[in-house]
Specification:
Order of helices and strands: EHEHEHEHHEHEEEHEHEHH
Number of strands: 10
CATH class of the largest domain: Alpha Beta
Strand content: 5-15%
CATH topology of the largest domain: Rossmann fold
Radius of gyration: 20 Å
Number of helices: 10
Strand order of the largest sheet: 1-2-3
CATH superfamily of the largest domain: HUPs
Helix content: 25-40%
Number of domains: 2
Structural class: alpha/beta
Length: 280
């Protein structure tokens, strides 16, 4: 099978050098493997992902000299597909509506409560035991909610069949999705989360190899669980180091790291940036 790689940015801000590194790495790996490179726009956040930012992704990648196959998949066009899968999980009793605010979760977890791998308080299951009538009443009243995966039921459904994932340079890494607790798979307004959308779209596009930032390493456990539950293939993974600034902090949109378009405006050439990132 011909290897298929993808670069999948979220247009909730302008791309920075860390995105350029990931995009160029995927292109280089696809070229070395005689494979294909796809671009996917992960714009499920319809509030922050504006069209001008989507246009900027194309501009930045064109400036870098990146080529990829057409058409480009946009997740915002796939909501019906996500909704159908989420509904199927609900019918199986594998997801449930949660009406808890972040403040309520923090309070219930307490100062000494467990945290997930990202450092957020581990959800204590406050809504897991609500009766069907209580759930229907809250939803009918218009209460905001999200859909959470019942981790215990999901693991039981898989029956120990989660085999971990193949990580470049490490071999087989055991999957430990229980570290994340009852993760969010969708919301009232948006019928998916990153976790659900990414595994569905990787399968839809036939992605065989995923090269992405190290910050998503532990999330791969959740993705392997969902792939197992949904009968989806398991790609090979390569989690690359994150680029950091002079202070040692990772480059991030939330930290207002210098965008590629700013580097371009300052007169830095695409060739110079590629060399700086280790690509000639």
């Amino acid at each position: 099978m011909q290897p298929v790689f993808r670069f999948a940015p979220s247009p909730n801000g302008f791309l920075h050098a860390g995105h350029a590194y990931s995009a160029l790495l995927n292109a280089a790996l696809a070229r070395q493997a005689g494979g294909r490179l796809l671009l996917r726009i992960e714009d499920i956040d319809t509030i922050r992902c504006r069209q001008e930012l989507v246009d900027a992704v194309f501009e930045d990648l064109d400036w870098l000299g990146l080529t990829y196959e057409q058409p480009v998949l946009r997740q915002s066009t796939q909501f019906d597909r996500y909704r159908a899968v989420l509904s199927g999980l609900a019918d199986q009793g594998l997801v449930y509506p949660c009406f808890c605010s972040r403040k309520a979760i923090r309070a219930a977890a307490g100062a000494e409560g467990a945290s997930d791998p990202d450092g957020a308080p581990l959800y204590p299951g406050l809504c897991r035991g609500l009766s069907p009538s209580q759930r229907q009443e809250a939803m009918a009243a218009g209460a905001p909610f999200c859909w959470r995966l019942d981790m215990e039921r999901a693991l039981a459904r898989c029956g120990g069949a989660i085999t971990g994932w193949s990580e470049w340079g490490e071999g087989l890494v055991p999957a430990r999705p229980e570290m994340w607790g009852d993760v969010i798979l969708g919301r009232k307004e948006t019928p998916t989360s990153y976790h659900l959308a990414v595994v569905l779209d990787d399968a839809l596009q036939g992605i065989t190899d995923i090269a992405r930032g190290r910050d998503l390493y532990y999330a791969t456990s959740v993705h392997r669980l969902l792939q197992t539950l949904l009968g989806l293939p398991a790609p090979r993974y390569r989690h690359h180091p994150l680029l950091r600034d002079d202070a040692g902090e990772k480059l991030a949109k939330s930290r207002h790291s210098t965008p590629i378009r700013t580097l371009r405006a300052e007169g830095i050439s695409a060739a110079a940036l590629r060399r700086r990132l280790g690509f000639v």
